[in-house]
Structures are given as structure tokens and as C-alpha cells.
Amino acid sequence: MNEMTTNRISVKLTVNGTIYTRAVEPRLLLSDFLRNELGLTGTHVGCEHGKCGACTVMVDGRAVRACLMFAIQAEGASVETIEGLAAGADSLHPIQRAFIDCHGLQCGFCTPGMINSTRALLATNPVPTDQEIRQGLAGNICRCTGYVNIVKAVRQAAAEMRASETGEGA
Amino acid sequence: MKPKAFDYVRVDTLPALFVALQAHDDAKIIAGGQSLVPMMNFRVAQPEVLVDINGIEALRHIQRDGMRLRIGAMARYQDLIDSPQVRACLPLLVEALGHVGYPAIRNRGTLGGSVVHNDPSAEGGVALCCLGAELVVASATGERVVPIADFLVTTYLTDIAPHEVLTEIRIPVPEPRTGSAFREVAKRVGDFAIVNVAALVSVGANEEVSAVSLALGGVAETPVAIDVSRALLGRPLDATRATEAARLVDEATDPQDDNVAGGAYKRHLAGVLVKQALTAAYADATAMGA
Fold it and tell me: How large is the ipTM?
């Protein structure tokens, strides 16, 4: 069977606050678009069928699988990847800092997805129980750490984010 | 790139959708894409044309209409779970959909897409069978209303033609003093269920069961409703009655081996989960007071 040659379609979207316009094949997954068109390789590609969670990004404020969405479907959307979370190594987000402090990563492959799922969880549930943390991260597979330190990291991040919010409000 | 190349059509209205479906015999509709895109990534599905209905606002509604709830085919799982109306009148649906995949899957996946996909243990399909839902199927020439049991033909096959689209799911709101419960066993949280069970139990003035509806996933080609009323009606539900209902389910089903579990194990799970779900639904109903 020959591969069809398909016309490219223009897509315009915002990624980490920057507007991009690109002409892409309809079959280009959002995950491949972020990595190969924009060079944002922090979005990792694992299973490519929605099981592993490594490609989890935020689309219009919600965590989604970038491997289960075509780039052209993100027309007009606002996408946030791991690269948009902190300005640099000196100003890590509390979630990133907590993963380091608690040894919540070893090889780091799952970490961008874990951190984006954590962002989504804490945005709707700032005081999660351990059970809720585990459910919030149930769609993210880690093959190194055994999850205990990841749960610990989310707990620490939640506490720090609550503390900083209270501090700002005072 | 993982999927085979395809042409892409985005539509924002139903009339535009019907034009697109008539123009392309080999079109496939994409809703949330959480089952279709994995199949395309594996190249199990190779549509020539993908028609994207994510932009059709008219398919997003979640709305109470008298004694039924009307759910647009593009309503996403998380929107249903978060909806105050759904939480108030269909707690069974909320409980069932909480078992679908993971947060990121529920953020994008739709109940409508899942029903049309028709996985044998889909939580949405099991809940809709238990609730006695009807499906509105539309085409350029009109629409028809199909009961869920007729719509789910067999695994991955539903009563919908290539030029048609599911537009709405209509669910009767249960009577007062109707309790509900959903139980499932999967290998991990979020995995496809091995067996799942949805139960609705209504009680009368003397705590007797006045109506019961039960549906199971994973034990047949599609989610199925099974009539256990003769085991339960007219008396309070106790362990003996629940066991008798489980026996009726066992008689009515013949679960098959698959690559996740054997038929005998599924049969065992069905018995355990039916008893748990009926008991919990009855307790839920009696707790509601007269």
C-alpha cells in the first residue's frame, strides 16, 4: 500500500506563551510536533498509545496526552510543556524542586509527564491525600523509582505551593 | 510518523458534518480520539479521511429536560463528572466514569465516542445499559432514536451507518429512593476492566425492592443489562437475595477467555461484583429515607 501524499495544513497555536504557525501533515501527532517542529524535546514519547503518560502536556489548562491528539487539532489552543514551567535552573517551579529534593526521579524519562500531571492535580486539588495523589498520577508510568518518592515529592510541592499562596495573600 | 496519512476535515456545525460525510464514503469521525488515535498509531485503523467534530458546540450540551438528562455526543468525561446536574441526578454515571482511564484520558475522551466504539467493558456503556439510555442518531435526512441495547450490536460494532452520527444520549432520571453502585476489577487503576457491574435499586415504603436494573461489562460481546427482578422484587434485599440474583446472572452469561483473564475467573468476578453492587445500591436507596 502506498503512503498517500497529503497536503499540509496550517496550524496556529500558542506554546509556552509564544505563538507559532506551521504547516504540517494532518497525521503529525502533537507530541511529534512539539519535539520535531518546535524542538521542545522535554515532552517525551514512550508508548504512543496513551498508556505511559510521558507525553502529558497541558492544553488549555488541562492535562492531555500529546500522543493522542493531532497537532492540527491544537489550532487556537494554548499548550504548556515542561519547558514553560520555569525560567531556568535557578528558578525551578516548586514541583520541580520537590522532585529533586525527594529523589522523585532517576532516569528522568517519565518526569515531564509526572510533573504536568502533578500541575493538573494540584490546580484542582491543592490538598490531595496520598490516595488522591496516586489516582492523579495513575496514568503516568515510572520504571525506576517505585513511586514512593514521587508521591512524597507531590506532597512536598503541594505544601510549598499552599504556603507561597498564603504568603502572597497575606 | 505513526499513523497512515489521511485527509483532515474540521467541521463546526451538523449540516457541515453531513456534507463532509456525504462527500467522503470512507470518512471516520473523530471525537475525543482516546480510542481511535491509539488504533491509528498502531495502524489498526487507517481512515482515508478524518472528520473532526471537536468544534461542534451544539454537541457539547449537558442538560436536564424534565425527567431525563440529555448529553451531547461531544461532552467529555471530565465535564460530565464535574457537572452539578449529572452529579445530582445520575450519581451512577459519575461513579462509573471515574473508572475510565486516567485524568488525561478523561479530559479529552467523550461518552459518545466510547458508546460508538463499543468496547465490551466500557464503563460508559455499562452505565448506560443499566440506566436504560436512548441514543439519537442523525443523518442529513433526519434522526432516529435507538435504545442502548439495540445500538450495541457486537464488539466494536454499533447500529450506526457511515453517513450517520451520534448526536445525543438521553438518560431517564431514576425515580426517588433509587440507589446506585458501580463496581469493577481491573489489573491497575485506569486499565480496561476485566468485569464491571452497574446497579440501580429502588425501594418502597417498607424497604422492599420496588425496581432493579443491573448491567455488566466484560462478560459478553458488549455491555449487557440482565433482568434479576424475579430474585429481588417485593422484599428487602439481603445476602440470600443478592446471591440468588448473582445466580441468575451466572445463568444468563457465558464469559469467554481473552488475553487478560479466563472465562472462569470472569464468572467468579461477576458473581462477587453483582452481590457487592446490589447490596451497595440497596443500602444507598434505603439511606435516602421515605
Answer: 0.94
